[in-house]
Amino acid sequence: MTTEIEWWDYDDADELAAAVAGDVQFIIESAIDARGAAVVALAGGKTPLPIYEQLAKAKLDWKRVTIVPGDDRLVPLGDPLSNVTAIGKVFIPRGARVIPLISATVADYKAAGRAADAILQDLHWPLDLCLLGVGGDGHAASIFPGPDFDEALNGPKERRALGVMPDPLPPEAPVARVSLSKAAIVSARALMIAITGQAKRDVLEQAIEQGVSSQYPVGRILADVELPVDIHWAA
Ligand code: 6PG
């Protein structure tokens, strides 16, 4: 299978943010028109925050919008590493339903993954959109090399989320994670990637070229996507 990939290059991060926010707005509006509701998974990390600031300004029927993080770090709500906290700060004031994947009471990462899966099983599926970031090490969502890599990539199709212990732990957030599975990501009705910087572009280009046997998680994910994927990039 050859994944159809379209690159969109922007002069700077602000231009990227405006364009991606516009595309996400359109996807949400289309889902609301078609079904009366939209369910989207948004990337964690820092790169997408300007996109979210732009998107939050959109005139949307926000109470019909459900947002989940595509992955989260196993930390309490409010922690600076918590993806849902960063996303919630932007979209809860607009009236969106922002659903955490992690409940503060779960300490064991595998149990946290099962709990996240149960939460996602209650949502309308497939996702209308999955927006992914990419780490400098080639991870996307929280699919990382380590003991859970194979399950994340090749687990049962109905498994939407799982617990992940990255090995090695990424220095910017050295904690266990919960993540959408590859099956959940590739089933989304729309898949978008937003990244900045030449280093991530180089990793992503290499990952795409390597395909299904890529050393990079994002390469393995993209090799299995059936819909066209938009990659938005700014230096
Ligand atoms: C996470 C993210 C992850 C993110 C990359 C890039 O929680 O780690 O969801 O997949 O997109 O790590 O993060 P930055 O944008 O902060 O570089």
Describe it:
Belongs to the glucosamine/galactosamine-6-phosphate isomerase family. 6-phosphogluconolactonase subfamily. One of its GO terms (molecular function) is 6-phosphogluconolactonase activity. Pathway: Carbohydrate degradation; pentose phosphate pathway; D-ribulose 5-phosphate from D-glucose 6-phosphate (oxidative stage): step 2/3. One of its GO terms (biological process) is pentose-phosphate shunt. Helix 1 packs across helix 2 (49-55). The two termini are 30 Å apart. The chain has a single domain (5-234), classed as Rossmann fold (3-Layer(aba) Sandwich), CATH 3.40.50.1360. Strands 1-10-9-6-2-3-5 form a seven-stranded parallel β-sheet, with helices on both faces. Helix 2 (49-55) links the parallel strand 2 and strand 3 (65-69). The longest helix has 23 residues, at 13-35. The radius of gyration is 16 Å and the shape is globular. With 235 residues, the protein is an alpha/beta fold. The chain is built from eight helices and ten strands. Helix content is 35%, strand content 19%. Bound molecules: 6-phosphogluconic acid. 6-phosphogluconic acid is lined by residues 43-47, 70-71, 73, 83, 133, 135, 139-142, 173.
Mean of residue pLDDT values: 96
Low-confidence stretches: none
Q: Helical stretch count?
A: 8
> What is the CATH domain class?
Alpha Beta
| Radius of gyration over all CA atoms, rounded | 16 Å
CATH architecture: 3-Layer(aba) Sandwich
Number of strands: 10
What fraction strand?
A: 15-25%
CATH topology description: Rossmann fold
Going across the biggest sheet, name each strand in turn.
1-10-9-6-2-3-5
Distance between the termini: 30 Å
- Helix/strand/pairing category: alpha/beta
Q: Note the run of SSEs as H and E.
A: EHEHEEHEHEHEEHEHHE
- Which ligands occur here? 6-phosphogluconic acid
- Count of individual domains: 1
State the share of residues found in helices, binned by percent.
Answer: 25-40%
Largest sheet: 7 strands, parallel
Global morphology: globular
